[in-house]
Amino acid sequence: MTTTPAVEAHFSLSDRAAYEAAIARLREASRTYYGEGYSVVDDATYDRLRLAVLAWEAEHPEDIAPDSPADQVADGAAPAGDVPHTTRLLSLDNVFAPEELIAWGASLQRRLGHEPAGGFTVEPKMDGAAVAARYRDGRLVQIITRGDGSRGEDVSHVIGTIVGLPEQLPVPATFEARGEVLFTQEQFEAANETRIAHGGDVFANPRNGAAGTLRAKDRPYRLAMTFWAYGAVELDGVAFLPAGAGHAETLAAVAAAGVRTTADTPAGLHVVTGLAEAQERVDAIAAMRAALPFGIDGVVIKADSAGEQATAGFGSRFPYWAIAYKLPAVERQTVLEDVFWEVGRTGVLAPTAVLAAVELDGSTVTRATLLLSGSAALRG
Fold it and tell me: How far is residue 371's CA from residue 368's CA, in Å, rounded to a whole number?
């Protein structure tokens, strides 16, 4: 299926029916992305839709749907798989503006009971698929998807195809590297050439291509991808990390073992003393976004101190000591050629716009769905 990202305007939910329709769309978006490897909405639309659901639930706590996906990893739609994670592999909460980053910092301070003293790290948020890669005695033995955060799918068939995740390390280390698998732009172009040569369809965009490639076992060809670690945990009770290692020190240990980390990207890993400096790094990474050889959809800020991370703790879906600062969607202008109406799998009626083809953030936009919420919003 061909999918297309689109641009979204802010919208809110007016009543219970709109809330239920929004939940249905969140589930559908996550079901297709995590279950079938393609997206029916772009990141910006998904984020705003989810924010609208959260806002409605905050205003109507007595009417929250018992199975609301808003507080579940991957909206509860990711295939859980049958491999337990060493520790929960969670997603991140989001902010979208400087004042929201400040509010997150205030929330972190309340949880700690004091102003964070250990500094913050700032690194790019890679636009790919989260995995846990297990090394035993220096050999890569298993790769697991995030799944529902507690259990994931074994995708070890891709071992040997991922740059930055070597099959054999130069040291006999035992640990689990956690990070993002994705196509660089060069790898994405090569992957589509390979698919065409084998009579297949091209990938809609690098993110969906990587998600689908991780799960595909029956292709007559192999596609190269790239990995960058954003964390690590110890495995099998074997010591790997220095005692009390913070985030920056953890990634340094992973890099020393021979696995590529976010510190190796052009955007780098930066240690800062406060959120004002973190905001400066966010702005700097956003400015280089178009020149990066891979897609990013945000910047991640984390409390660097392991002690402060432990004190702040975790929610059901994300750690309280880390936040993703989501970057604005890439926008392009095109021509609306037609509109027709479709009924989705959940029975929600939505008008679909037919657009003159336009390149947008690595994808060709040809269709978008108009949100019926009082203000227009497009999705692919």
Answer: 10
Helix (H) or strand (E) segment spanning residue 135: strand 129-136
d(C-alpha 234, C-alpha 287), whole Å: 35
| Cα–Cα distance, 369 to 91 (Å, whole number) | 27
- The radius of gyration computed from the CA coordinates of the chain, to the nearest angstrom, equals 21
Helix (H, G, I), strand (E, B) or coil at 249: helix
Residue 50 confidence class, pLDDT cut points 50, 70, 90: confident
Question: Residue 375 is part of which domain span?
Answer: 16-77+332-379
Q: Which two tokens stand for residue 152?
A: 């994931």
pTM: 0.78
DSSP string, 315-337: -SSSBTTEEEEEPPPP-----EE
Q: Are 358 and 365 in contact (CB under 8 A)?
A: yes
Distance CA 45, CA 38 (A): 15
pLDDT of residue 245: 96
If asked whether residues 170 and 216 sit together in one domain, one would say yes
Q: Catalytic residue positions?
A: 125
Say yes or no: 306 and 239 in one domain.
yes
Pairing of strands 83-84, 336-343: unpaired
Whether residues 43 and 132 fall in one domain: no
Query: How many domains is the chain partitioned into structurally?
Result: 2
Residue range 197-241, pLDDT digits in tens: 999 988 878 988 998 899 898 899 999 999 999 999 999 999 999
If asked whether residues 152 and 245 sit together in one domain, one would say yes
Residues 72 and 92 in one domain: no
Residue 29 has a pLDDT of 75
Q: How far apart are CA 253 and CA 263, in angstroms?
A: 12
Instruction: Tell me if 10 is assigned to some domain.
Output: no
Distance CA 281, CA 213 (A): 32
Strand (E) or helix (H) holding 353: strand 349-360
Q: Is residue 7 part of a domain?
A: no
Residue 65 — pLDDT band, cuts 50, 70, 90? Answer: confident
- Alpha carbons 190 and 78: distance in angstroms, whole number: 28
On whether residue 2 sits in a domain, the answer given is: no
Q: What is the DSSP letter of 36?
A: I
Is 8 contained in some domain?
Answer: no
Residue 256, both tokens: 């020393």
